[in-house]
Amino acid sequence: MVHDIVVYPDKRLKLVSEEVAAFDETLHTLLDDMYETMIAKNGVGLAAIQIGVAKRVLVVNVPLESDEEESDLQPKENTLEIINPVITYRSDEKIKFQEGCLSVPGFYEDIERHAMVTIEYQDRHGEYFTIEDDAFLAVALQHEIDHLDGKLFIEKLSYIKRKKFEKEWKKREK
Ligand code: CO
User: Fold this and answer.
1) Which of 67, 83, 97, 98 is at 20 to 30 A from 157, Cα to Cα?
2) Residues 14, 16, 17, 18: what is their CA dihedral angle, to the nearest 10 degrees?
3) Which contiguous run of DSSP H or E holds residue 172?
4) What is the CA radius of gyration of the chain?
């Protein structure tokens, strides 16, 4: 089921999400709904709080590069389902990437993050995994894990850029 996205400045986006203890049907439905919602809204990642569920759950699906139909670029089997993630390594090296967020629609800005991270997490059955990656996936995972801690990418903007964003956002809300 496709859910509505919780949009900034909704206070729920500031919640620190709770760890998942039960790897049951409820979790599986949540994960399936998150995938459907992410695809319906043209996202590459989604944290549970973005559909109003304060659990440490996120999905990421980096589109394939191909000439296929657009709808085939993010197949469900390519979805990383990440539960209770912990970042256990952060490289000193940083990279800048243009980020956007379904909860801050229509706004994109370059954000600096660690170029490489190692993440320990559980899958939908509660099994433990480690993922080491670089570039786009590392950025996406850092962005989504921030959501689990109640943080948005706009909080990483410089003071001036943040002010500019707030001004633009207010104008748009009218
Ligand atoms: Co986001």
Assistant:
1) 83
2) -160
3) helix 159-173
4) 16
Report the separation in Å between the CA atom of 9 and the middle of ligand 1, taken as the mean of its atom positions: 13
Active site residue 144: yes
Write the single-letter amino acid at 156: K
Instruction: Evaluate if residue 80 carries a pLDDT over 90.
Output: yes
CA–centroid distance, residue 102 to ligand 1 (Å)? 6
Residue-wise pLDDT for 28-75, tens only, equals 999 999 999 999 999 999 999 999 999 999 999 988 887 666 667 889
Spot the catalytic one: 81, 99, 109, 144: 144
d(CA 99, CA 97): 6
Structural domains in the chain plus CATH codes: 11-63+76-173 (3.90.45.10)
Whether the pTM exceeds 0.90: the reply is yes
Tokens of 127: 């099994």
